[in-house]
Amino acid sequence: MQSDTLLHIANFSTLFVCMVLKFPQIFVLMRAKCSTGISLNSLLLELIGFIVFVTYQMYYDYPPPTYLEYPILIAQDVILLLLILYYNGSLRQSLVYALLLVGGWRLLTVERWIIDLAMSLCTFISAASKFAQLQCMWSTKDAGQVSALSWGMATYTCMARIYTTSVTTGDMQVLVRFVAMTLLNFWVLLTVTYYQRRRSSSSKKYD
Known about the structure:
It is built from eight helices and no strands. It is mainly α. The protein has helices spanning about 1-20, 25-30, 40-60, 70-85, 95-110, 110-140, 150-165, 170-205. The longest helix has about 35 residues, at about 170-205. The radius of gyration is 18 Å and the shape is globular.
């Protein structure tokens, strides 16, 4: 009984957080009107990872509460992608990205081995997205417009999904992915916080 209650809390809290997870980042972008510090490659890789993951879960008829947040995250990432392209002056490229992402999504379910292979690579794709964001900040030594709140919420949702996956499907591929994403999201969060505090300290020093 207690286990069921914890499962429901974890599922619904994850869904709720994911409904607004990218909002802080979207608002920061709209306020700054520039995408400094945000890696386009990171966002594209994250989108690919989300699409593969939710397609895999749906293909094998996993319980909807274990992946319901991913369509919401994909929609928010698409908004972020459009904003980044707009502020970079390359909005026309959005059509190319849309065709590639939709075409890739359709290809995933053509054969079972394709979705299985894609899922086996999903953790590496998602990990690459985090390293792309880290590399972007390391190269500029600045967090730019990256939202620490969004990365903090992402860390929580992955931690919650470790629990929900372990007590529902027990899928080791999915568990390994969530453990890796929790650690990498937390690493990005710490990096963002570090650069933001350093920038704040520098500003106070010059004031």
